[in-house]
Design a protein that fits this description.
By secondary structure, the protein is an alpha+beta fold. It is about 25% helix and about 35% strand. Strand 3 and strand 4 form a beta hairpin. Pfam families: AHSA1.
């Protein structure tokens, strides 16, 4: 190997993995429950301009979840769902996520891994979703989830 040889390392997932960290002013069990209880999910899930109007969840490993985000402005309905892969109450939630395609079949599947860590009376939530097909889709989800997490923060502050 000569002095002029260089190695090119590429990261095939660059820009296609979403990680969001948030501290919520609530204990981990309460924050976890907001992700586990469909009635509570309806109160915060979805960005402000596309709030959830339907949520169902069979919270068990192998159980399915399904939701619909609805735009009041355009009437567009965005159906999506997945399957629970790992559940540790108050600590971790792992599930698949896929938007419905026009023919009703699931589109590209990503994996969502959420951890809930106690910080005094608060919770550090680490949300990771991967791997997106494009950086643009990753950025779109970043906007959507952050808007939803703003709504979750408001909900938790009322409890």
């Amino acid at each position: 190997m000569s002095d002029t040889t260089t190695a090119h390392v590429t990261n095939e997932t660059a820009g296609r993995v979403l990680t969001i960290k948030r501290v919520f002013n609530a204990p981990p069990a309460l924050v976890f429950d907001a992700f586990a209880d469909p009635k509570r999910m309806l109160q915060w899930m979805g960005p402000r301009d596309y709030p959830a109007t339907y949520v169902e969840a069979d919270l068990r490993i192998g159980g399915k979840w399904r939701a619909c985000l609805d735009s009041a402005a355009s009437g567009e309905k965005l159906w999506h769902g997945g399957v629970y892969r790992d559940i540790v109450p108050g600590k971790r939630l792992v599930f698949t996520f896929a938007w419905d395609q026009e023919d009703g079949r699931p589109g590209l599947e990503t994996l969502v891994n959420i951890t809930f860590e106690p910080q005094d009376e608060k919770t550090m939530m680490t949300f990771r979703q991967s791997v997106f097909d494009t950086p643009e889709n990753c950025r779109g989800h970043e906007h959507g989830w952050n808007s939803a997490f703003d709504r979750l923060e408001e909900l938790l502050s009322q409890e």
